[in-house]
Amino acid sequence: MQLSHSPARVSASFDEPNLVVSAGLVPALRLAHRVGLPALAERHVTAGANPGAKVMSLVAGMAAGADSIDDLDLLRRAGAARLFDGVRAPSTLGTFLRGFTFGHVRQLDAVAARTLTGLAQAAPLLPGIEQTCLIDIDDTVKGVYGPGKQGAEFGYTKIRGLNAQLATISTADAAPVIAATRLRRGAAPSAHGAVRMIRDAITTARRCGAGDNILVRADSAYCSSAILQAVSKAGARFSVGMPLNSRVRAAIATIDDASWVRIEYPWAIPDPDTGELISAAEIAEIPFTASASKAKTKHVSARLIVRRIPERNATKLQDPLFCAWRYHALFTNSPDPLVAAESTHRGHAIIEQVIADLKGSALAHLPSGTFCANAAWLVCAAIAFNLTRTLGVLAGGSLVKATTATIRTRIINLPARLARSARRLHLRLPRDWTWEAHWQRLWTAVMTT
Fold first, then answer.
1. Residue 156: CB partners within 8 Å, gap ≥ 6?
2. What is the dihedral of CA 195, 124, 397, 440, to 10 degrees?
3. pLDDT in tens, 353-404
4. Cβ distance 41 to 76 under 8 Å?
5. What's the Cα-to-Cα distance from 271 to each of 83, 279, 284, 307, 406, rounded to whole Å?
6. What is the DSSP string of 153-200?
7. Contact between 322 and 349 (Cβ < 8 Å)
8. Alpha-helix runs per DSSP H in 35-156
9. Residue 2: what pLDDT?
10. Is the pLDDT of residue 315 over 60?
11. Can you give the pTM of this predicted structure?
């Protein structure tokens, strides 16, 4: 690929007042209004004046790709100033965020949960949730580059940052959406606050249409009696990684060799310990009681499912005299058959895609030095993520499960020129746009119904 003209024959000027950089924000904002996002913010958030307009400005900017407060100015330039009303300046939005307290962040959490419920009602966002609902919880450390940010500490990743905890909802046929978020200090343990987050996520899932078959998945950091009992008390089932402590190893040693079932992976998967690609493993299960060293009221009895793979000698090119194994255990009360239960648990890795998606968009930065401002920014990022996911679902085709970056490129950040005729605005979009059919499908679903 190269320029079709010599550089001397090409010029550029910033003088087009009718150009809109992100025409896909038109159906996006229309959808946000249909589900009541600004009204919910006005009703529940008590931080500052006109919180509805300010939350809408934050979410719209993030949907268009803003990852800092200054980037939000893209909503006020050229044709966007004629197309959108009530857009707040970046300085106003920064002041608004810095006025948040923890209570205000929880108010914004309530707005995010109700917005997700509205999106699930406005579009087939979570098909099959009545039959099977999967809730995943995990956390990540977002690195920061200065000790001045409130809450920035060195955590388990040995990186100075803030810890973001997320809970997602997905189904067998739907990509995940974010049900709850929580920003914590960088050195916070993974499971800190998980009980409340799981309860909130289960409540949101039921409001979105989930039935009785809810499965909560998590890694071994969340294997505690408090979390397992909270999941069961909420009427859901759990599937969590189990740390390989001495009791678990002793239980694994009692498994008879005839009980191991060989499974083949359709695609080779990386081993979580060594990174080695493996294409087969063996699994087995036994009854197990977790937290048996604690009071009887904290005992949790369920199935211990163990996966084993051969231990490879990475330093010597010779076959071992006897087979050695590495084990990975999970603890679940799911009634699914052995192979299905183990396969379903491995699907927990889908939450890593959501985390990577957020870090590639609005969570690329935590823009404020104030902790609660960054916590509110995280909640707005989750709302923008869910809104963008809904746009992809309505656009259909390959965008139903696409990343938000792909949806932004193909649907949202579509340039258009504003034309006025008979007191009506008309968006003139690029001819022969590859994803024109998707965009028209979204426009019809949101703007004409």
1. 141, 190
2. -120
3. 999 999 999 999 999 999 999 999 999 999 999 999 999 999 999 999 999 9
4. no
5. 51, 10, 18, 11, 29
6. EE-TTSSEEEEEEEEEEEETTEEEEEEEEEEE-TT--TTTTHHHHHHH
7. no
8. 37-44, 51-63, 80-83, 90-98, 102-122
9. 78
10. no
11. 0.93
